[in-house]
Design a protein that fits this description.
Layout lengths: L1 E5 L6 H12 L5 E4 L10 H11 L2 E2 L3 H6 L10 H13 L2 H9 L3 E3 L3 E4 L15 H8 L6 E4 L6 E6 L2 E5 L3 E3 L5 E5 L13 E7 L4 E7 L3 H10 L4 H9 L2
Parallel strand pairs: 1-2, 2-3, 5-6, 6-10
Antiparallel strand pairs: 1-11, 4-5, 7-8, 7-10, 9-12, 11-12
Bound molecules: fe (ii) ion (FE2).
The site of fe (ii) ion has 6 residues, from loops.
C-alpha cells in the first residue's frame, strides 16, 4: 500500500493546491490528513471542499474542534482564538458540521492517524521529545503512526523501549520496533523551511519520505492581510516558523 499523508493545512489554499497537484504525479492508494485543516489562513471553505473531495481518511485537530464548537477557545492563544472566531463566521454551517463527525483517531491494519498523540488524543498533547513520543508509541498498535500538530517533521523510532528522533527526507522503516512519524505542516511549517511538507509511505517497500514543495507564499500572505486576520499569520509563512 502506498500512503500519502499530510497535516496542518490551516486554510492555506495555495499550499494545499501545490501538494494535491504534486500528488497527482504519484501512485497513491490512500490519502490521509492528520487534522488542523483550518485556522490561521484565509481559505477555510475552499480548503475543506478540496479535502473532502480528495482525502480518503481525515482526523480532527484542535483547530478543527474549535471551529466546530467542540473545544473551549481558552485552550488557544489570542491570535489563534481570533482565527477560530473568524473561521466560524465565514465557514458555512454544513462545513462546520463536517468537523462534528470527524474521529480523533483512524487506523487500518498498517498505519494509525492522530493529530497530536495517541496518549489522550482529546487533550492534544505535543510530541516534542522522546518521553512524549513513548507515551503515544506504547498505545500504538500498528507498526507506523502519523501525527502533525507541532508542524515539525521527523520520526521517533522505538526499539526495545528506547526512543530516538530522526529528521529525514528519506528513510527505511526498521524491520523491528515502531515508528511515530510527524509529517510536518502543509500550510504553516515551523521548522525554518517555508515550503509545504507532506509524507509518502510505501508499506510494501518499507520506505518513508518527507517531501517539501515551494508554493506562492506571497499570494497566501496577501489574502490573510486582506481578511484582517492577525499579521503574524502572514509574516511567518515566509520564514517557516
Ligand atoms: Fe496545527
Amino acid at each position: 500500500m502506498r500512503y500519502a499523508v499530510f497535516s496542518d493545512v490551516h486554510s492555506n489554499l495555495e499550499a494545499l493546491e501545490a501538494v494535491l497537484q504534486a500528488l497527482q504525479g504519484e501512485r497513491v492508494d490512500q490519502l490521509l490528513c492528520a487534522g488542523d485543516s483550518v485556522g490561521y489562513g484565509a481559505d477555510p471553505a475552499t480548503c475543506l471542499e478540496l479535502l473532502e473531495r480528495s482525502v480518503h481518511h481525515m482526523v480532527c485537530g484542535n483547530h478543527d474542534l474549535a471551529v466546530a464548537d467542540r473545544m473551549d477557545l481558552d485552550w488557544f492563544n489570542k491570535p489563534a482564538q481570533a482565527a477560530a472566531l473568524w473561521t466560524r463566521a465565514v465557514l458555512p454551517s454544513e462545513r462546520r458540521r463536517y468537523f462534528k463527525e470527524l474521529p480523533l483517531v483512524w487506523k487500518d491494519s498498517q498505519v494509525t492517524l492522530v493529530h497530536g498523540s495517541l496518549n489522550e488524543p482529546e487533550q492534544f498533547h505535543y510530541v516534542l521529545d522522546a518521553e512524549a513520543a513513548l507515551k503515544s508509541l506504547r498505545i500504538q498498535e500498528t507498526p507506523v503512526a502519523f501525527i502533525g500538530h507541532t508542524h515539525l517533521p521527523g520520526a521517533y523510532i522505538e526499539e526495545g523501549g528506547r526512543v530516538t528522533f530522526h529528521r529525514f527526507s528519506r528513510m527505511e522503516v526498521p524491520p523491528s520496533g515502531k515508528l511515530l512519524v510527524n509529517v510536518g505542516s502543509v500550510g504553516q511549517p515551523r521548522d525554518g523551511d517555508p515550503r509545504a511538507a507532506y509524507c509518502i509511505y510505501d508499506s510494501q517497500a518499507g520506505e518513508l519520505s518527507i517531501r517539501r514543495l515551494p508554493y506562492p507564499i506571497a499570494q497566501a500572505q496577501a489574502k490573510i492581510r486582506k481578511a484582517g486576520l492577525p499579521e503574524l499569520f502572514a509574516d511567518r509563512l515566509a520564514h517557516g516558523y
